Amino acid sequence: MRDSFILTSILSILLSAGCSSFRSPNEPKQSGTLKDTFKGNFTIGTAINADQIRERDPVCGKIITDNFDAVTPENIMKAEVIHPEWDRYDFSLSDKLVDYAKKHNLEVNGHTLIWHSQLPSFVRRMKDADSVRQYFTNHIKTVASRYDGKLESWDVVNEALEEDGSMRRSIFLEKLGDNFVVEAFKLARQASPNTKLYYNDYNIEEPAKRAGAIRLIKKIQAAGVHIDGVGIQGHWNINHIPLKHIEDAITEFSALGIKVAFTELDLSVLPSPPNATGADVNQNVQYDAKLNPYTEGLPDSVQQKLTDGYASLFRLFLKHSDKIGRITMWGVHDGQSWLNNWPVMGRTNYPLLFDRQLKPKPAFYQVLKIKENYSVNNQSHQKNARFN
């Protein structure tokens, strides 16, 4: 079992390390692209990693520039990377990201200014509130001001809520109090007045956590502080896509006068461990082969379920496209996905629209067809309305 686990882990790491440039000469070309298909409805984005920012694989690069008009850095703008020491910032990769986006006419969503996870070690060691507040203030001002006018948006605060809608117990809540989210948005607005500001979280389509997110957004607004939108992460499983809750969330968040974005969309096809909930990156479940059933490829029945799941979601997104600003896939292709190693290390997951060989999956073509059918149906309804 251990040898099997090690072999599977090595394979997953190799597949996840970057894009493979292999492509069969007989492979059919995709017809249509995501960004062209949904132009005029909402922006289509993807999360990209350091190698993609460095443009180390031209095949993967073409998928990005053909299909997406926005990018979110998967990790390089998180605090542990961009602010590794108290008095030192490392903007090398984030500057390169901005240059990459400008070169390819892509919008950038900054991710993320304040998050309790992936903090630099010096912050985790802090004991007094004054030090935390100084870090908090300096970090937001320094990072946000550097990219004012260069980013389309920021995820200002990430994952500040518990599943019951209460404030998450974090170093920021403990040391700064429950007003820290309002303060973060205030500082971000001052430092970057030309950038849209979002609150981002997972499971905020679920009723209890959604209620907490609405309270938090109303609190920001009541303080006279600017907020442009809310990001629903969208880490779901093909066996449970809460469409009714998602639609309710779109409607209720939009009623607050803000835009809705789906910021980290992927659909896991694997069994969920019994004790794993939400999308907390700190969860770590022991490997079990029963939780990794598709190491040799995805059965047609599961591929169809994935396709149907994406079709249902994009049908809903189109229905509410007047309220939605952006849909961002959390990764370009399956081999890159964080879900290969979360919450169980060494699994083989298939959650995105492009596979490990960089080929569009049936779900990709179905998503394009959803828009085509939606447009035809709308034209038919309009025509019937004129003659009735």
UniProtKB/TrEMBL annotation:
SMART domains: Glyco_10. Keywords: Carbohydrate metabolism, Glycosidase, Hydrolase, Polysaccharide degradation, Xylan degradation. Its EC number is 3.2.1.8. Residues 28-370 form the GH10 domain. The keyword Chloroplast does not apply. The active site is at E264 (nucleophile). InterPro entries: GH (IPR017853), GH10 (IPR044846), GH10_AS (IPR031158), GH10_dom (IPR001000). The keyword DNA-binding does not apply. It catalyses: Endohydrolysis of (1->4)-beta-D-xylosidic linkages in xylans. GO terms for biological process: xylan catabolic process. One of its GO terms (molecular function) is endo-1,4-beta-xylanase activity. PANTHER family: ENDO-1,4-BETA-XYLANASE A (PTHR31490:SF90), GLYCOSYL HYDROLASE (PTHR31490). Belongs to the glycosyl hydrolase 10 (cellulase F) family. This is Beta-xylanase. The lineage of its organism: Bacteria, Pseudomonadati, Bacteroidota, Sphingobacteriia, Sphingobacteriales.
